[in-house]
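Predict the 3D structure for this chain.
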Amino acid sequence: MLKYELKKYILKPSLHICIIVLFLLNFVKVFELYYYTGGGRAVLSGNAVQGTDILYDKYSGKITDEKINGLKTELANAEQMLKEYGIIEEPIEGTYCGYPYGDVNLFKDLISSYEYAILYSNKSAEITENARANAEFYSDKSRYEYRLSKLYEDCYKGRSLDGYYQSEGHKAIFDYKFSALLSMFIIVLAISPIVSKEYVIGYNKLISSSGKRGSVMLAKLTAAAIFTFAVTLILFASDMVYFQLIYGFDGFSAPIYALQEFEMSPFNITLFGALVITFVLRLVFLLMFTFLVTAVSSFCKNDIISMVVSVAAGFLLVIGSELLPGVLNPTTLIGPTELFTNMNVCNILDFPVFNVVVTLTEVILLAVVFAVVSVRRGMKCC
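Done. Predicted structure below.
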């Protein structure tokens, strides 16, 4: 029965062609993002050369005294060249990016990143000490503040860094939401007729007379969930490939706070772990949306109407959620940059709970509600 549902609604050539087209559109969007915000415009205009990649390969990874001394020497040489040539319009040889002032800026940025990594343990110790002092102060005054201070202490204690890694690709993919919107569109195309189509082709009477309405609806929900998992995985994997080709990834085993943009991340996870969490959160959101679409389909007797209403529901979900507080906004699971950037917690019965836990619980409950509505309504209609 499950195989039949997959074949009837999902394993269709027309849907596969549409998915391929949307994959290509996703690549165009990733490249557009890189072009306007990631330096692609400079690369294509000839204002940057491969020397910057050579420089990164030379100084990325584990920080050593040799690399530090090399950076200082090369910065001094670049500053000397800048004095000799000044601000020039045409690139010259003997530089990494073509221009002395560009090299100076590059080396200063690298040194700043080295300083961040080397001094991060001091920052971690300072946060931990302040949290410990706050916990002691609030121990007999406020249970919530005491527990919050202990949470800060547990999250930030003992941290240290010994390497430098490029951050552009990771930053971009954590905040990239377009592929999730494409996933929602594909889900509507494939899933919106999963119940309503039975009315159009007259199978609803056959299903009803067979006495297997419950089994049919469970098969439909299972097929929809499998399809959602596959689409989410494939599109997220394509994101990884596209960002790797355009930006390049590095330091998968490094802690997420190795990137300066995530220095206050409350989670002691690797960059690869952060990517896995990003995928899981997106999958949970899209499963909730899938069951919403199946619920809509169970109320419609026309597959076109079901598709239109599902699109409207998705639009309201994305647009309307912006009016909700962050902790209640389900779309925050799509692009979890904020999750990895700051310590975001809320007070629940005097316990500090991460916002993402509350949001995740909300979305899972909605998914269960939509699934139950789909089954109950579908059993009445089929």
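The first strand starts at residue 61 and ends at 62.
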